[in-house]
Each structure stands twice: as C-alpha cells, then as structure tokens.
Amino acid sequence: MRVFCILPAAGIGTRMAAGGATPVAPKQFLTIAGTPILVHSLRAFAAVPRVEKIIVAVRATEMERVAAQVAEFGLTEKVVVVTGGDHRQESVSHALAALDCAEDDVVLVHDAVRPLIDSATIERTIDAVVKHGAAIVGLPAVDTIKQVERTADGAIITSTIPRERVVQAQTPQGALCGLMRKAFAEAEADGFAGTDEASLLERAGVQVAVVAGSARNFKVTQPGDLELAEFYFDVMSKTLAGAK
Ligand code: C5P
User: Fold this and answer.
1) 112 lines ligand 1 (CB under 6 A)
2) pLDDT 10s per residue in the chain (244 long)?
3) Does the C-beta of 170 come closer than 6 Å to ligand 1?
4) Which end of the chain has fewer surrounding CB within 10 Å, N or C?
5) Nearest-CA residue for atom 4 of ligand 1
6) 167: closest CA among 131, 135, 129, 194?
7) How many other CB atoms sit within 10 Å of the CB of residue 225?
8) Which domains, ranges and CATH numbers included, belong to the chain?
9) CB neighbours of 48 closer than 8 A, spacing ≥ 6?
10) Is 36 in the pocket of ligand 1 (CB under 6 A)?
C-alpha cells in the first residue's frame, strides 16, 4: 500500500481580496514566517515518510513559479506540479488523472491554504483511511448551529441542529484510490459539484470516518487569517527553540 497526496492550489483568492482596494496574490502564494503558504503545506506532507508523492495542481500561468519554489525549498523528490481547473473539484480531478495509484493505495487531498496541518493529524488520517476506506479531518462544533433560509431581509432561522451531530469539515480528506476515483467519476457523470471530497464519496455510497481536527488547521481565507497564521508559526518556532 502506497500513500499519495493531492494539493489543490489553483484558486484565485477572491475572498482575500474582497473589500481591499488593491488585488492581492492568490493566498497560497502569500508569505507567512518568510515562506509561501503553499510551501508550508507541501513541507508538512513531505515530512511524513509514508507519503510517497505529492501532486500539486496550480493555474497554468503559475506552473513555472511553483516549479521554481519546489526546487528552491528542496521538495523536488516528492512533488509533481500539474495544471488545475476552474473549480477546486476540477483541480483535484486533474491531479487524480495524473496519479498512478492502485485501488488500495491511499490518496489524501489537502487544501494548499491550510499551512498549519501537522504530521500527527496526517498520520491519523492515513490510518483511518486504511481502517475505514475513507476519512476526513473534522472539527467538532462548539457554537450552536442554526439552519437558515436566506431572504431578501437576511437570514431567518428554520431549525437548530444539535451540535453533537455536527463537525466542520477540514482537510486532509482521503480514501482508497479506487473509491476516490469512483466517487469523482460518478460526480462528473451526474454533473455534481461539491466543495470537498467527502461530499462526492458520500453520494457514491462510501462511509467516511472523521478524525479529530484542530482550530489551528484553519483555511487561510480572509485578510486577518494571515496574522493568525503568522502568530501560530511564531509560537511553534519559539516552542521548538525552547525544546533545544
Ligand atoms: O477557496 P477554496 O476554499 O475553494 O480553496 C480551497 C483550495 O482549493 C485552495 O487551496 C485553492 O487554491 C484550491 N482551488 C483549486 N482550484 C480552483 C479553486 C480552488 O485548486 N479552481
């Protein structure tokens, strides 16, 4: 059994630019603690010995820049760069097509813009995929969750979802390669568009297990998120320095 990882990194970061006067670089290329966000994410997976290859999907116009970064940060041995698509699902699909995996190999998908993923969580997700066939990292809900209906006057609550029945889906999200390919093929055949892999696996009838995530593994999405990620990296480097 081999383990592969796909990093969709072809987004254009519209939410990061929202409200700002000037357009910003796609968030996966912004720098935190002196290193591009994408490189932090690649490093996290490259550091896990069981991960054999990482396929990163980027816009055609970014191929050169990413290939140069992969070389600069010494990641060429494990990382392959492919062209992404117009939606996250399409980017993952392109990477899956480029992946030479057997039915029972493990494939994990991780948002390139979650740079604070840690080795232990990656390892636990791999183990859960091996055990259950498919698994994602999820964060138990701490807030009370409301279902709403959007109206012209704003949102109106229609019900309360018991929070013990809710997790917030993070990444990595993984499955045995055969199941992941089947889920993507069925979604494509039906014209289904999902925002994560689990939604495709669920509709393909695959049971997906949940591994406990942490708030630290957040998706860098809005402007303030950069400062928060910077803070976490600062704390981590001080903790490492203190341990020496
Ligand atoms: O913004 P969003 O939540 O969709 O981004 C999640 C991940 O999907 C990001 O790493 C982003 O770069 C990636 N993505 C992609 N191709 C797209 C859109 C998003 O690889 N067309």
Assistant:
1) yes
2) 999 999 999 998 766 655 555 556 789 999 999 999 999 999 999 999 999 999 999 999 999 999 999 999 999 999 999 999 999 999 999 999 999 999 999 999 999 999 999 999 999 999 999 999 999 999 999 999 999 999 999 999 999 999 999 999 999 999 999 999 999 999 999 999 999 999 999 999 999 999 999 999 999 998 899 999 999 999 888 887 887 7
3) no
4) C
5) 88
6) 135
7) 19
8) 3-138+167-243 (3.90.550.10)
9) 3, 119, 122, 123, 126
10) no
